[in-house]
Amino acid sequence: MDRLDRAFGKQIRREIPLARYTAARVGGPAEVLLEVRSANELAQAVSLLWEEGLDFLLLGGGSNVLVSDAGLRSVVLLNRARKVRFNTAAQPPTIWAESGTNLGLVARQAALRGLSGLEWAAGIPGTVGGAVYGNAGAHGSDMAGNLLVAEILHCMELRQGQASVREKWDMEKLQLSYRSSVIKRSPGKAVILAALLRLQQGDPAAIEAKMDELVAYRRRTQPPGASMGSMFKNPPGDFAGRLIEAAGLKGLTVGAAQISGVHANFFLNLGKASAADVAALIRQARQAVLDRFGIELELEIEMLGEW
Questions:
Q1: Is residue 73 annotated as a catalytic residue, yes or no?
Q2: pTM of the entire structure?
Q3: Is 298 in the active site?
Q4: CATH numbers and ranges of domains, the chain
Q5: Catalytic one of 68, 99, 181, 230
């Protein structure tokens, strides 16, 4: 920690509740919280942590994660790297964005410039890095349809220790699949620094109209309030929300956590829910769907910390 303290000083805080940094507003404290403000700072911090053999977690928008009430006994890197560059003259037009940039905001900025292709991302609360990490998607589209390359820092094992290597990974190397990537499947081995996205020229008014339509649909079909986003992946040929609702669990409450009455694949914090409340709902939903349909639901979110 001495090297990290010397490098980042006042950007480091200790025993900070993570509930304020997660979309569901639940989660215990981080032993160490370091806010990084650029891709270069993120790379520097991760390299130091790998060299010192210290555990760390990268946190962006705080969606798709459930942090335990005990918190995280590790370094949490709060990713605030948000630089964005548009290249409207390229063929196709591109957006380069650091991994801490809000994806929904990038989509709106693209629309203002007459760039189409990210309409599906309007209203998504996560970051560009998180979207690549989990191949985020909506309305039949996902990051795999936009991504050209991602700038990656990965840990290379050497005979005498290890080295941090900064590279550009294409789609083949990233191995994006349904709500997953090779980076997500190999935790701690690599981090996403930035991404280059492909778009198309379009009519700004038509793009805005499409985004407004998709946002309106999202508001009609998904509940407002504090949640992690979709709790479970959709099983092949079906929908997790339909299965949970058919199992009779829509509206079920444990403590101050609830399976939404609007969409059963969203679990809400009604005010002062604990992570344990949400975890109890997860167990009940999985068991009920397994008992009734013989289907074992797979989490889309990640459960972090001790359970």
A1: no
A2: 0.91
A3: no
A4: 2-79 (3.30.43.10), 84-206 (3.30.465.10), 223-304 (3.90.78.10)
A5: 230
